[in-house]
Amino acid sequence: MGPGGWRWNDAWIFVAVVIAARLERDRALHAALPVTGASLADVLAAADFLHHSVPSRAELEESVCRLAGAGLITVDDDLVEVAPAGEQLWRTRPFSGLSSAVLTMQTQLNRASRPGDGDGGWTLREATYQAAVREYALRLADGR
After folding, report:
1. For residues 50 and 18, what is the distance between their CA atoms, to the nearest angstrom?
2. Biggest distance spanned by C-alpha atoms of the chain
3. Which side of the chain, N or C, has fewer Cβ within a 10 Å radius?
């Protein structure tokens, strides 16, 4: 854990949410659809891209709650978005490229804020997590 209380997993999930939300926003705008936020499958895909690993249900739930509790992301059921404070933190980070984005964000998180202790009771049900894992696995199989 860093001096501000943020863990590496928190930064990993935050960067994954940023990537997933931006990709979803671009997809929706290109298709003239409303922007609804990134799905948990989108976040899993981005997390796997960053770290060649899919976070466990517990890792994802804990980091999402800490990030949402700090006001950096919003979560509604299985859709996540970057909150204005999270956008500001992302935009003002030192640019380091994706290879070191997670470490850079952990440093920025520790300088900027403290982790939240929850976001009002959001929990990631096992069935919801497994559905997101299945959706992501289907995307991989389809080459998406």
Report:
1. 12
2. 43
3. C
